[in-house]
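Dear support,

We are seeing what looks like truncated structure output for some complexes. This example has four components. We would appreciate it if you could run it in full and send us the complete token output so we can diff it against ours.
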Amino acid sequence: MNVEHYADAAISRIAAAIGEPARARILYCLMDGHARTSTELSVVAEVSPSTGSVHLSRLKAERLVKVVVQGKHRYYSLEGPNVAHTLEGLSVLAGGSRARFVPNTPSRLRVARTCYDHLAGTLGVLLHDRFQTLRWLSVDSTEAYDLTPHGAKAFEALGIDLEVTRMLRRRFAYGCLDWSERRPHIGGALGAALLKVALKRKWVLQDLDSRALGITSLGRREMLARFGVHV
Amino acid sequence: MNVEHYADAAISRIAAAIGEPARARILYCLMDGHARTSTELSVVAEVSPSTGSVHLSRLKAERLVKVVVQGKHRYYSLEGPNVAHTLEGLSVLAGGSRARFVPNTPSRLRVARTCYDHLAGTLGVLLHDRFQTLRWLSVDSTEAYDLTPHGAKAFEALGIDLEVTRMLRRRFAYGCLDWSERRPHIGGALGAALLKVALKRKWVLQDLDSRALGITSLGRREMLARFGVHV
DNA sequence: TTCATACTTTGACGGTAGACGAATTATTCA
DNA sequence: TGAATAATTCGTCTACCGTCAAAGTATGAA
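Here is the complete output from our reference environment:
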């Protein structure tokens, strides 16, 4: 059976799954990479638990979310970075020409935010460029970034275990295109590890109900001292 | 008014517009970058002209397609590369894990195809890499590729007027990520110009009802002679 | 074992989105 | 000008999708 012949039908199924307002609220809420329970998501979606459950099973059937069962809780999260990226793509289209000419994205999202599970926004792009300038990161098109020996040293110094990071079943690092900046930031396992460190050391604080990240004064100092980046 | 606060609603509107089967057929058909009339698209969508017209006005309202009026014909086409990319993203999600493990994309689409209005597939990626090796193309992340003096000479030799190409109201060249190869090919005005030359000189032939491109034996010879690329 | 909590499944209901044909507008060609 | 073609608008109809309450399952605590 030729799948390609029915590609339009497949696209429409996925898009329809995303296109229902309650389901879109669920997906948008999950874009920060966190997992949430069925009831939490039903509240976000502004529907009853039963309705929420129906929506979630639809999203699961379409492989847009995955679920981890833990006792009587079911934790739902986006199925993977691809899903997050496509949602970003849709939000760019949704922004339309308005966003292109008068960027009215709230500055909190522009300055620093999460992109699925790594750093994005101005800060993400600044770090990306800085690491390149410092020759910590060898960049070869959008795919397969890697750390130079210098870079490896620097990341180890942050407490990131590169052995472990490389073992993860995902791409190590790549240029993830930032829709607000239209320039790449660091995605992949390395980007996720970096965000984790930044959160752990309280360089940035995570907003509970959006993907915005707040930079602390400690964060500012450290960014300058460690990377020479003014935020 | 804070647009970001309603981002989920905006996403859902766009996705719902794409998610209707007839509209998905229309969009998918337009992914080759060509413009088509309302009646043609109604046939593709398998609906009556009146229904097709309603769908098209919805797609226009959501800025997914644009229309050029020429006499009594209305030519519809995708609003821009962003739309095509997002549709590609959706089709990747639609492919699901199957596509990841057993790539069952028909080989005709893998070898060479159009991505909106430029060359993609194995051929597109091969050329991209070759131009880089030859130092014709200076690649700086995904954004803002440019031609080196050598590259400029080579492209002019193909009959491409770079003055004109640079004047177009779109990005000159950039790395466009290829979903079948997971590597970049040349997008933007330069990529479009290259495809135009390849079609004009009959190096590749365009399939009428898909984005597949067939490479002619002349094309093979020229690719080898001019670029040192084996196809 | 029994109660409580988390979540899903089922069934009935209502609103809306998409379908078409007929009528209308717009443009070309004779 | 009038006929022919392209496309849209309008009115009506139907089918499906999302909604919820209630009943059902599963897990954990008392």
